[in-house]
Amino acid sequence: MRLKIFSRILLVFLVFLVSGLFHTQILQHRAYKIMSEKNRLRVLPLLAPRGTIIDRTGKIIAKDILSFDAAVIHSEIRDREKLVQALAELLDSTTDEVRMTIAKGRTMPYVPYVIRKDIGMQAAIQLEEIITDHPGLILQVSTRRKYFLGKAAGHITGYIGLPTQKELEKLKPYGYEISDYIGRSGVESVCDTYLKGEDGGKDVEVDHRGREVSVLGYKEPVPGKNVYLTIDSDLQEYVSEIFSDRRGAVIAMDPGTGEIRALFSSPSYDPEIFIDRKRQKERVEVMCSGVPVLLDRAVAAKYPPGSVFKLVVASGALEEGKINARTEVVCTGGITIGRRVFGCWEKAGHGVQVLSDALKNSCDVFFYRAGLAIDVEGIAQYASKFGLGNITNIDLPGEVKGVVPDRQMKMLQKKENWYPGDTANFSIGQGFLLATPIEVLRMASVFANNGNLVKPFMIRQIGDLKICPSEPISVGLGANTVDLVREGMRRCVNEQGGTGNNAASPDFVVAGKTGTAQVSGGKTHGWFVAFAPFEKPKLSVVVLDESGGLGGHYAAEIAGKVFKKAKELGLLE
Amino acid sequence: MRPGRGRIDKIMLGAALFIALLGIIFVYSATTVKGSSVAVSPLVLKQIMWVGISVAVLFLIANLEYIYVLNYAYIFYFVNIILLLAVLLFAGERYGAKRWLDLGFLSLQPSEFAKVSIIFVLAAFLGDRKERVGSFSNFLFSLLLVGPAFLLILVQPDLGTALLLVPVLFAILLINGENIKYILGTFAIGGACMPIFWHFLKTYQKTRLTVFINPNADPLGAGYTIIQSKIAIGSGGLLGKGWLNGTQSHLKFLPERHNDFIFSVIGEEWGFVGALVVISLYAVIVIRGIKIIAGLDDVYGKVMATGFVTLIAFQVVTNISMTVGLMPVVGIPLPLISYGGSNALAFMTGIGFLLSISRERKR
Hints:
The structure holds two protein chains of two kinds.
Chain A: H1 2-27, H2 29-40, E1 41-46, E2 53-54, E3 60-72, H3 80-91, H4 95-104, E4 113-116, H5 121-130, E5 137-147, H6 154-157, E6 160-161, H7 165-171, E7 182-183, H8 186-190, H9 192-195, E8 200-206, E9 212-219, E10 227-229, H10 233-243, E11 248-253, E12 260-266, H11 280-288, H12 310-319, E13 329-331, E14 334-337, E15 340-343, E16 351-353, H13 355-361, H14 364-385, H15 407-414, H16 420-427, H17 437-445, E17 452-453, E18 459-462, E19 465-466, E20 473-474, H18 479-494, E21 511-517, E22 525-532, E23 539-545, H19 552-568
Chain B: H1 10-31, H2 42-62, H3 66-69, H4 73-90, E1 101-102, E2 107-108, H5 110-128, H6 136-154, H7 159-175, H8 180-192, H9 194-200, H10 203-213, H11 223-236, H12 247-250, H13 262-294, H14 299-324, H15 341-358
Helix pairs in contact in B: 1-2, 1-13, 1-15, 2-15, 4-5, 4-6, 5-6, 5-7, 5-14, 5-15, 6-7, 7-14, 11-13, 13-14, 14-15
């Protein structure tokens, strides 16, 4: 009787077992079969390397390089302490640190967990040697973006980052995945769709670690296209060397074509801090320091141009016939307009000045008169002709346009009439007028390019596709006008007492114009814009020394050094 | 030899040897890694060795008079308790539990032997007191005999093995004709104490129970094994993928595949049919065992036979249920098929005694 109860109980268990197996193996077979296929058949992405960024001479500026990562699979670790010791020695780290990093990956014991990214070739070889002694330890290979110019070209290359959820929704139709880096600024951002290749893939049978056991299908990845720049790496590095302790921007360009040779915004940043997780601290510094580091001051920040604007006023007054080469103005150190006295920077006065004297000495009184003669409308008209108040369309992201004021604008913004005093301020590049360094450079390059306005650019070729520079647009100046202003610029640098003397060179002739822009309640901005060689200009340079307080003389010194370096590099031939 | 000894049960012996063979075949399959150059894993050779030893032990025991062995039942019992204590004191941890006693040349798992010695000691005790069947003292002392071993195994922690002692004890009490009221009463009290019991569980044991209810709660952690095991068994279908062709196990998706989860390999490679074959073989042993029990007057033999039959039946049920996800993962090997020397030896010892008892028939 009792044995019967016992047998019945066992029978119940038997039925329970068999029906359980029947349910799993027969009724749900299809679902589990699919899961098993999914388990072992996997499409392994073959990541396409991002295109390389190359300078004008063929030097590499940014490139995807192989990165070796040390990783562990928790479920396969046998001797944890031995592994910790070995890793600490290999990675030159403390055992506590390694132990903690390993512990973090414990939640996913069956998939590789990266302990340190990019351990370098040497350490990778050493790791490969000890891998068999330490079950659970593996070496993973991936790619990493390397920026060879680093901080020297941060604003040119820009940086890359993983897309946010929102960005991904927009980019998905274009074949982007969550793990695809996208360009965040600079060339990386402008050429992102070209630089990004097309990922390939392999249909493979994999084991539990995701290691392939056999290949069932293959699609080759298409690498991203290379991007060729007009930048000269050596000049760029030199500029960063001499200017990185200042704030502001330096741009060098071929005035005839608009090809950018160097473009440096200071303070700059190393793009690798956005990829390297270890450099979190530097990243925070860049993002959170009071000074905006990511801002490209060369194209995305506007400043009062000060005296460099006198080049525009001079051209306008000449074209309108209000002055000629022999028109004399006596500078006594200031003029009275209405009830206010407008002083010259030289309080003692410059005496009798013709146009080229005034450009050489940067005489304010001369330009007050010239500006008043063509009035606000005339100045604004010529400023616009020189491209001020309008973006240059340079191939960098985030460009802003400067401000060219007029009567209407002042009325709308300040609810005030335009006074003759405003015109006087306008004439010497102060007041409401604002310009970006690239606008100023393009404006001054007109005098190096027979009165033609170029479109600045730095991307000359993408893959096999050459990019044609846009045709320069004539500003519509008479040849005489251009020559007269050029002469003034030449004297400014090369004649005794000229404000731009610091830029002069014994080997070639530089022509330029200084500016020291007043800022209400702050230190002055120093400006210098110039081109060389005088007879056949090959390079124009603008230097903006933001809130440096040293004036145009200092900016001229920087530009002088840039020209000398350019000469060495053969950029003036 | 006493007069009236019959022949051993050849059907049971055949089933046991067949199971041992399956064990070797599937330990081989489970340890063969696709793409690996090593032909035969050392684990397979070890398993063959252990099966050989176990079969020898089986024949030795089958020819013994079990009744003499019971003279040493208490000694076995106390030695085993001491070994269990030694494990707690000296053993190093493996997979977060102290279960193995390292003797240098081999490592022992005293909890495996405890299952056998508990059966011995209960047989000796209840057999000596057969005139007091149904008394409270019989019941209470049986509980007290099992109690220390149960607790010592529980704190290792080896929840699965400890819990196996429960059906063994109660089946013995039931078959031996002890008072049903006491048995049901203990169950009632035990059930009421469940919440307190939960409190004493280790974190990983709680995780296992949580994961049993919802394996997807932690698919790459604790739930991983269950999910992979169910995928293996389910994808096997009616006839399976064929021996050595299981993708789940050969690509190493399934951890512990040569050990507690060897049934998943069988289910994947031989399908529902293969699973039924394995279950049938165990069923043959259990059915023959029940037949032996039914034909016995001798209390010693009856208690022993009941103990071994229950032990085998519940170990099989627990292990297979766990691999199919019908029960929480408790770490009980599949008798004689899962890799392991202690496992094979304990099982063959049980079969050996069943065979020995089988010769003691009613005239």
